[in-house]
């Protein structure tokens, strides 16, 4: 595989958090807008099962990963203890406040539970997992919403969710200022969600990171551009276009899975890389951090082999795949309430 020179820095598209891409990929860092250094390449833990998570994380750490991404809700609350048991002192820890804990007191409670599970006094990055509220049912439909109103799904009325979201952020600011987290950010935010937070008169601490689903089919240019304006690092999840039911979804859109797309395959052949590595490298060259996940020891290591550089034509071919708006969304595409905006 072609490797860049240890001192060669690839050109990225980001104006936001600067990426230092010198050295091997697992040494790459992003400098957040509060000065904290965060690994560019990390290991995701979403959808790992309880019985396989420990070994997968062990393989990732052995391969050299130094960032673990988890959340309060992952694996029904069982993932944080697994991460806490497996982590080492030099690992950058990310966790997320769950949407069922919106509000100041509830967010504080959620974070304290996470710290206890992870067996730490401080996490490196705390994210607000979802902008939308907690709700009581998993079965949702536009028809039922039209007939009964969206309140039937909520634990709290929707009329105050925007205010409650700010209470959540206030609690996260308090935790940051108290030293319980090294940085704070948001996840699954639209440009409107993020803009409202940034324009809040009571804002004391600007988000340092936005973690969203991002890949060539779903590029979310509006929120990415807003992040660049405010020096907010974009961290991409589902960089490979998703797995499991992804093939059926892309077939419905008359598109091949990204891992099978000719643009990814051609670049992979040219660089002696895997299609997965090409998609991850595309994200890095756009200026994003990435958190690939795998259960397989070989793929866990292969996802770190990102030392090649995609040329302008290869980047353009992948850039051209954007379906526009949220059409390319794979994750939670049938769960619109998670991302809907409310007054």
Largest sheet: 8 strands, parallel
**Name given to the CATH homologous superfamily:** NADP-dependent oxidoreductase domain
* Percentage of β-strand residues: 5-15%
State the helix count: 12
Order of helices and strands: EEEEHEHEHEHHEHEHEHHHEHH
CATH architectural arrangement: Alpha-Beta Barrel
The percent range for helix content is 25-40%
Number of strands: 11
Could you name the ranges where pLDDT drops below 50 across 5 or more consecutive residues?
1-14
Across the major sheet, the strand order is 4-5-6-7-8-9-10-11
What structural class results from the helix and strand content? alpha/beta
Radius of gyration: 19 Å
Mean pLDDT comes to: 88
- The CATH class label is Alpha Beta
Please state the overall shape, judged from the principal axes of the Cα atoms: globular
- Reported by name, the CATH topology is TIM Barrel
What is the total domain count? 1
Distance between the termini: 51 Å
